[in-house]
Amino acid sequence: MDSKQCCVKLSVQPSRGLLDEKFIVLVQSVPPGLQLTVHALHQCEDGHSWEAFGHYTADASGNVNVSEDPSLGGTYSGVEPMGLLWSLTPIPGSKPGLRMRKMNVQTPMEVTISVYQGHQTEGFMDQVALAGVVVERWYMAPGVRRIPITEDGLTATLFLPPGPGPFPGLLDLWGGEGKLLEYRAALFASHGIASLALDYLTPEITMETGKMVDNKYVEVNLMNDILCERISFICYFKNLIKSQFKCAVCVSGSHVQPVDGFLKELLNAGKTRYNEENQVMFRELLLPIPTDPSLKVDVGRLQCPLLLVVGEDDQNWPAYESAMDMKEMMERAGNSHLLTVLSYLNAGHLIEPPYTPHFEQFLLCLVFAVMALWGGETLAHSRAQEDAWRKTLVFLRENLYATLVLANKYFVYLGNIMDT
């Protein structure tokens, strides 16, 4: 087929939407039976490019509907409406261990969707596409307000949903890599939950003094002034047990609290294991789960609903084993009715919002740079992310009408939940 003689129509609807919103990719006006490749290309803020593609055959009407028609190959196969996002991988020649993360949530994630003739697998940049469109995926819905917070030495960003409020509140914490990460909090605010993204590992005060913050860093009642008297935030799990929070969510985390606390001491303990590809599996650091109750957060004292989200093939942290131990602890204490465990077969570490690409390995820079194995299979991990996000939103809406702590991947040295 001469591309100059073919008026291929390509549409993506909606072309602008939230990251967790599905879109429909439709190719029209091609000869029936024509083999086509639908390709997605995204350039991250760090300059690295990612791509995904599926192979299709036009139906008798000369159409391809990615939401209904099966991909015959590519980075995904079968009927996968959002395969062009969740199967994104670094383009050939990229350095290993890359991870896609949106750092500036005030701009969209732009993805170029293109159609090529034939079932192509490489060299897309050297070919002329039959058609192409640019779609935008946002973490911030229209009307969401972003407010940097620096009072009392905090390094944080508050996201408020549209409207006057008051709103239910959420404190969003990340794990051992540190940095102020805003994208999940922004997406929660887009679903009506005021969210505070807080950096408690590498805040400005820690960078200036060289000392890690303690509980007082986050026992500041900022949200009372901004939202309503029902909302405050305390980030650590021990305080969660002592306080009147409505609910908590822990993603890929553990209740084990090593005595020394810091990752450096753990690495020096000699329990770190590497596979044949020299990828480190941090999960061994906390295994076997200790029986000594002094080495674990006493979840038996928990008085609010707790949602645990874990991948059963998590090679970075023993989240599944920890979840099972927490379940046993709460059953013995008589508060297991408060616990919900979302456990996903063949899912790996860090179950993100839906359609986020899966990272089996990641170049992690903590005490030193290591290639961390996160585990999981791409399709299973994608399914887990979509299911967990939907159920997490339901969990929050059912329970969150006062205060919530979202505890993801704690790496805390004061005897609390820990992760990397």
Instruction: Quickly count the helices.
Output: 8
| Helix content range | 10-25%
The biggest beta sheet is recorded as: 8 strands, mixed
- Tell me the fraction of residues in β-strands, as a range: 25-35%
Q: For this structure, what is the CATH class of the largest domain? A: Alpha Beta
Please give the order of strands in the largest beta sheet: 10-11-13-12-21-14-17-18
Report the C-alpha radius of gyration, rounded.
23 Å
Strand and helix order: EEEEEEHEEEEEEHEHHHEHEEEHEEEHE
Please give the domain count. 2
Q: Please give the number of β-strands.
A: 21
Structural class: alpha/beta
Quick overview of this protein structure:
By secondary structure, the chain is α/β, with parallel strands linked by helices. Helix content is 17%, strand content 26%.
